Amino acid sequence: xxxxxxxxxxxxxxxxxxxxxxxxxxxxxxxxxxxxxxxxxxxxxxxxxxxxxxxxxxxxxxxxxxxxxxxxxxxxxxxxxxxxxxxxxxxxxxxxxxxxxxxxxxxxxxxxxxxxxxxxxxxxxxxxxxxxxxxxxxxxxxxxxxxxxxxxxxxxxxxxxxxxxxxx
Length: 168
Known about the structure:
There is one protein chain. It contains five helices and nine strands. With 168 residues, the protein is an alpha+beta fold. The strands form two sheets. A seven-stranded mixed β-sheet has the order 1-3-4-5-6-9-7, sandwiched between helices. A two-stranded antiparallel sheet has the order 2-8. A hairpin with a 2-residue loop joins strand 3 (56-63) and strand 4. The longest helix is centred in the middle third of the chain and has 15 residues, at 96-110.
């Protein structure tokens, strides 16, 4: 089931996101950033702040009351920014990510946005290809990676983002 995350979900969301992107546990899945970034992906304070922002919504995917995935949507003009798409490393490849992409389209239409945008680390070819298979296109725009901000992790090499979008 996909529904809005609440403040009481913050500890579970924090554990989930960090387990999917960083450290040894993340290497069970194909979305790991462990070879690119050290440190943590997020922290409870940051997730709490995000949930409390009026233009931001975090949705969670649960089965048997356990949070197994999440995604963040931020309203930006005529678009929603999709970020922090996370699926438990043990369940990646089971269709949960696809459900979140479908939910993003429904949500964008509900709040009358015409497109979904996201940034992806440019060297994440397999992840970019996955989004492209689901209708996202490269805009040609790049954005710098915050190399000196430990809140995003500690880069192990030079990184940048590419921007993808999908019209809805």
